[in-house]
Design a protein that fits this description.
The chain is an alpha/beta fold and about 280 residues long. The chain has helices spanning about 5-25, 40-55, 75-85, 105-110, 120-130, 140-150, 170-180, 195-200, 240-245, 260-280, and strands at about 30-40, 60-65, 90-95, 160, 180-185, 200-205, 225, 230, 235, 250. It has two domains: about 30-115, Leucine Dehydrogenase, chain A, domain 1 (Rossmann fold); about 140-260, 3-Layer(aba) Sandwich (Rossmann fold), CATH 3.40.50.720. It has ten helices and ten strands. The radius of gyration is 19 Å and the shape is globular. The structure holds nicotinamide-adenine-dinucleotide (NAD).
Amino acid sequence: MIIDGKEIAAALRKDLKKKVVELKSIYNAVPGLTVILVGDDAPSKIYVKNKEKFAKEIGLNSEVIRYPADLEEKVLLNKINELNKDNKVSGILVQLPLPKHIDKRKVIETIDYGKDVDGFHPINVGNLSSGYESSIPCTPLGCSLLLKKVEKNLNGKHAVVIGRSNLNGKPMTQLLLKENCTVTITHSKTKDLKIECLRADIIIAAVGIPKLVKGDWVKNGAIVIDVGINKTDSGLVGDVDFDEVSKVAKAITPVPGGVGPMTIACLLSNTVECFKKAYSK
Ligand code: NAD
């Protein structure tokens, strides 16, 4: 089975669009997403454009604030504080990476954790790891929704997460634990990645190395979710060797068209959730 992230994300956006209409009829207001882009990083510009496009498509109040790369940190922090107080803004996302002179940690911690649609604020990270309600980072959230499409009950499954980034590997691990998986988290210092992968019922690859996971690393019937997006001479590829692994896996996400579309759909979903929490207080 090839897990069609494009289709699943489109269905999620359709549901969200309906929800936004319902919320408008209840609260006479719609969720608002403000994205801040600092500088000229080419991939970031594309991501932001797509976020804006889909936010508008589902009826959110969408705003993008663009700053030059030499922006003073305090101007950015002041803007975030202003947005924190603005009732029309349900979610704030500062597109990463930021220019080096800006302290990423300070920026993340300045965002009101109730508007932290990326789920990076330490309060949200702590809540997620304690099993409490929180904003969940969009890519791991998307991966877990894809997994649930293949298998509703993940109780007792052995999941191997490749990569331990704050963005992907660590929050993914928390989500899998919540689903009662036994989780092995692997990284660049793991001694024998192939052996670890061979024990997995579920593999989540979030590394950034083209086609790292080979067909003979995967046991028959495993579910493989490929987070990687790697530019190569032959186009975009994931961290999984799709041609080899699709022959042994029970289900696998393609790249592109797997996890990628889910990331934006989950960002929209997080924005709607932040709005609902703010308005139901
Ligand atoms: P990162 O560089 O922050 O982390 C990579 C992780 O991989 C690290 O924890 C590192 O220890 C581990 N690693 C490196 N080499 C390894 C090896 N040989 N064996 C095992 N582990 C190894 O990367 P990230 O931000 O988590 O992104 C990972 C990939 O996911 C990238 O390709 C990125 O482009 C992609 N990505 C995709 C989406 C999406 O929406 N699909 C979103 C974010 C990132």
